[in-house]
Amino acid sequence: MDEQVAQLLENTQLSQEGPRKQAELDLIHARTNPDFPLALARIAIQLRWPVVVRQSALAILRKFVEDNWSPEHADGVHIPIPEDTKATLRDAMLNLVLSTEDERKIKLGAR
């Protein structure tokens, strides 16, 4: 799933409206996959992805978590995040913030 989501994130950066809008729609549909938040976290952590893709993954992950972490804060459709996924996300973001990575934009996005 990581490859697919990363490609969609790259496509959201395209100047061509058609492919960009399709990628945005596909990301909305991907949200229902239980692996979606973890895929975003893995993309954000992996240095092999361009910084812009990693930043996008963090921004979308942040919004996903804000919308779905707890049911009482849900506006509209709530996609429950299992407790084990929450624990993995916490660890991944903490590791990213504490990493020796030099890319400040990524570390700030993980906060």
Question: Could you explain the architecture of this structure?
Answer:
With 111 residues, the chain is mostly helical. The protein has one domain (2-109). 67% of the residues lie in helices and 0% in strands.
Tally of domains: 1
Based on Cα principal axes, name the global outline: globular
Written as H for each helix and E for each strand, in order along the chain, the element string is HHHHHH
Number of strands: 0
**Would you tell me the overall average pLDDT?**
89
**Share of β-strand residues:** under 5%
- Measured as a percent range, the helix fraction is 55-70%
**Uncertain spans:** none
Distance between the terminal alpha carbons, to the nearest Å? 24 Å
Break the fold down into its secondary structure elements and pairings.
Blueprint: H1 2-11, H2 17-30, H3 36-45, H4 51-68, H5 83-98, H6 104-109
Helix pairs in contact: 1-2, 3-4, 3-5
Features:
111 residues, 6 helices, globular
The gist of it:
This protein is mainly α and 111 residues long. The protein is built from six helices and no strands.
